[in-house]
Specification:
Elements (H helix, E strand, L loop, with lengths): L5 E5 L6 H12 L2 E4 H14 L7 H10 L2 E6 L2 E6 L2 E2 L7 H11 L2 H15 L4 E5 L2 H5 L5 E6 L2 H12 L8 H16 L11 E4 L5 H14 L1
Parallel strand pairs: 1-6, 1-7, 2-6, 7-8
Antiparallel strand pairs: 3-4, 4-5
Helix pairs in contact: 1-9, 2-4, 2-5, 3-5, 7-8
The structure holds cytidine-5'-diphosphate (CDP).
Length: about 220
């Protein structure tokens, strides 16, 4: 049981949890961890090592050997894997698709969840993902689950990616998002925790969503 503030924000693909979580962490002076980056880092390492990303044993052994570190730099948060900065590659199409089978591997999840729990014990934190309220910190001080329609979420992800080198079309984004939703929803822990506050963000931008979360934390 942690005695400091732990805020869990979960939600499906592109529900805005990372943008919102960052604002909340900044406003409250907490650390911020996007656990999706950790799954993406394992997928990236598997691709770099030319492994079959569906090979459960090999991918679990790879995850065991990785040292994943989040550091603050002049360029914002950076993710280092075995000392190498891979932040700029975490949203490449190959990683975006490769992370789906990797996040389904039980061994990989066990290793990352253990690391996330240990990070949560270090002090006040906002943690975002799919299973933070249900699995990583079930005793979090307060839990939120962000939702929005697939079309709103696809539009957000499309806008985010549109000026990048391998920017996908809106239709591609929507198709991949629906596919990932389907896979995520098959995992028991990827559902809202029973005690999570559910926020429909369809008509809200990131700062309005963050404001609502902060108000609810302050009223709690
Ligand atoms: O931003 P987006 O929702 O597209 O993805 P993300 O949060 O960066 O997560 C990348 C992948 O890791 C997704 O396919 C999630 O299913 C998976 N993931 C997970 O299984 N558990 C988490 N705590 C965070 C992400």
């Amino acid at each position: 049981m942690t005695s400091h503030l732990t805020i869990a924000i979960d939600g499906p693909v592109a529900s805005g949890k990372s943008t919102v979580g960052r604002i909340v962490a900044q406003e409250l002076g907490c650390r911020f961890l996007d656990t999706g980056w950790m799954y993406r880092a394992v997928a990236h390492a598997g691709l770099s090592a030319k492994l079959d990303l569906e090979d459960q044993d090999k991918m679990t052994r790879l995850a065991e050997r990785l040292t994943i570190k989040l550091v603050e730099s002049k360029r914002g948060e950076r993710l280092l894997v075995n000392g190498i900065d891979v932040t700029d590659q975490l949203h490449d199409s190959r990683v975006e698709q490769g992370v789906v089978p990797v996040a389904a591997i039980r061994g990989v999840r066990r290793i990352l969840v253990d690391q996330q729990r240990s990070i949560a014990t270090d002090g006040p934190i906002v943690m975002v993902g799919r299973d933070i309220g249900t699995m990583v910190i079930p005793d979090a001080t307060i839990k939120f689950y962000l939702t929005a329609s697939p079309e709103t979420r696809a539009r957000r992800r499309y806008e985010e990616r549109k000026n990048t080198p391998d920017s996908p079309s809106y239709d591609d984004v929507l198709e991949r998002l629906v596919h990932r939703d389907k896979i995520d929803s098959q995992r028991a822990e990827s559902h809202p925790a029973d005690d999570a506050v559910i926020i429909d963000t369809d008509g809200l931008d990131a700062s309005e969503t963050a404001r609502r979360i902060i108000d609810l934390i302050e009223d709690a």
